[in-house]
Amino acid sequence: MNLLVLGGAGYIGSHFVKLATELKHNVIVVDNLLTGHKESVNKKAKFYKGDIRDRIFLDKVFKENNIDACIHFAASSLVGESMKNPVKYFDNNVTGTIILLEMMAKYDVKKIVFSSSAATYGQHDKMPITEDYETKPTNPYGETKLFMEKMMKWSDLAYGIKYVSLRYFNVAGASIDSSIGEDHRPETHLIPIVLQVPLEKREYITIFGDDYKTKDGTCIRDYIHVEDLVDAHIKALNYLAKGNNSEVFNLGTETGYSNKEIVETARTVTKHPVPMKLGNRRPGDPDKLVATYKKAEKILGWTPTKDIKAIISSAWNFHKKHPNGFEE
Ligand code: UFG
Description:
Blueprint: E1 2-6, H1 11-22, E2 26-31, E3 46-49, H2 55-64, E4 69-72, H3 79-84, H4 86-106, E5 111-117, H5 140-159, E6 162-168, E7 170-172, H6 190-195, E8 205-208, E9 220-221, E10 223-225, H7 226-241, E11 247-251, E12 257-258, H8 259-270, E13 276-279, E14 288-289, H9 294-300, H10 308-321
Parallel strand pairs: 1-2, 1-4, 2-3, 4-5, 5-6, 6-11, 7-10, 8-13, 9-14
Antiparallel strand pairs: 9-12
């Protein structure tokens, strides 16, 4: 298939591009490189530098390529930043998706796999979360992802664009061959920050709050390996290629780990003491986010294959090999 990957130079996008090119798809990448890295994009993919909010630019990309399906990763994705600057999130995420859907309708592209988030659910007491849980985001980031899903629902009705929305839980780890991995500037995610301690880039990890309603008081998240995650996108594409209806799926592992447990696992994997300090809560953080993936298993035939130790080990191998990320 001719696949247009929006945000293909980002952390998750680049892992998808790697897999899709290995599977011999013809991949076209669009990325504004504000947070992505051109070096992380597989050389077999055709690359366009530009912003999806730029109508003229995106029109040219669609005109020059006979696109069969879009895979949409292009978005701002930090919970904390979205609380401080919500307008940036509505502009980048919602406006970008409006223009993308407009182009899909114009060029008659009828399939899209969309990068959604567990942040669409917000705060719930009963875990694991199934896809029919109420969506009530606790931060602007989650709100924009929900908005984007809603735009796709109505675009399906109006233009016949079929979508699969994948609600990711916490994506982590790196490619098993250590060629690509996570490199955000600045880094805000727990696992890469914890690993900065054994990498001697920081002295200790600060845990944001220990008075949450959880077993040890620190937040609980469901971590999924990035290669398991991108595999679900290929399965979603195959599902759409068979002419199936639009659907929403959770992608998680049904296992939650507290922030303290993540630090403990990182100590085991890296054999480093990783000192820990307690900080204030980070606004917008829900207590617990754990998914059930039964629907993706049943309909897409997808199951996660890597546990938390394998996830942290793959990230550790990547960071040891590329201590300065994609800067070398
Ligand atoms: N945390 C710390 N210290 C740090 C960094 C993070 O204690 O230095 C904590 C956070 O407060 C949170 C947990 O580690 O409790 C995980 O935080 P991350 O920033 O790694 O991940 P989030 O859960 O905030 O967000 C991630 C993605 C979102 C996605 C969400 C869904 O960044 O895009 O998972 O669960 F929506």
